[in-house]
Write a structure and sequence with these properties.
The chain is mainly α and about 190 residues long. Helix content is about 75%, strand content about 0%. α1 packs across α4, α5 packs antiparallel against α10 and α8 packs across α9.
């Protein structure tokens, strides 16, 4: 039986949604196709109708999650207060929601070990976010801030979030977040 194109599009979207969340929540290596497809309510055999490999799925999931994160950031930054933006990123809520939070903090260290095409997808779809951060920082400072400086700020934020997530003690994790807030504000001003 043939399905209508809308059915295939909806099915593909369900797979991408499940994969994006699961990769961020559990890590790329820890999530197999069976887990993604079960989460999407589909059989593993259905996977290959939509994607040629797990790597192809990962690339599309990265594209999807990085683009969504960028859109959210672009809505937040204009006129936003630096401390408010930093505290929102380094919040306990963001720390505790790895599946729906920033894909950079959740996946960058794993993506670094993937093939060049996957790293390129990650880099090219993170670039607009770095450009938006650089423009925002430039407007705050009154002088041009480059993409490298924006990457340093995002790296500080993402790394702090990773360390806070890894800390087994809640009080220690909260202290890491607070120290990250102070360091990010110093770096950004």
């Amino acid at each position: 039986m043939r399905y209508a194109p809308e059915h295939n599009d909806a099915t593909r979207e369900r797979i991408l949604e499940a994969a994006s969340r699961l990769f961020q929540e559990h890590g790329i290596a820890a999530v197999g196709l069976a887990k993604v497809m079960a989460e999407a309510g589909l059989t593993v055999g259905t996977f290959y109708t939509h994607f040629e490999s797990k790597e192809a799925l990962l690339q599309e999931a990265l594209l999807r999650s990085l683009d969504a994160r960028h859109e959210a950031l672009v809505q937040t930054l204009p006129g936003a207060d630096l401390e408010r933006v930093v505290r929102a990123y380094l919040s306990p809520e963001h720390r505790d929601a790895s599946g729906t939070g920033c894909p950079v903090a959740a996946l960058a260290s794993e993506v670094a070990r993937h093939p060049r095409a996957t790293r390129h997808t990650f880099s090219s779809h993170n670039a607009p976010t770095l450009d938006a951060l650089a423009a925002w920082l430039s407007s705050r400072r009154g002088k041009k801030v480059g993409r490298a400086d924006a990457a340093a700020l995002l790296g500080l934020l993402a790394g702090t979030l990773q360390l806070a997530r890894a800390a087994p003690d809640r009080a220690e994790s909260d202290a890491i977040l607070e120290a990250g807030v102070r360091a990010a504000i110093r770096l950004a001003t």
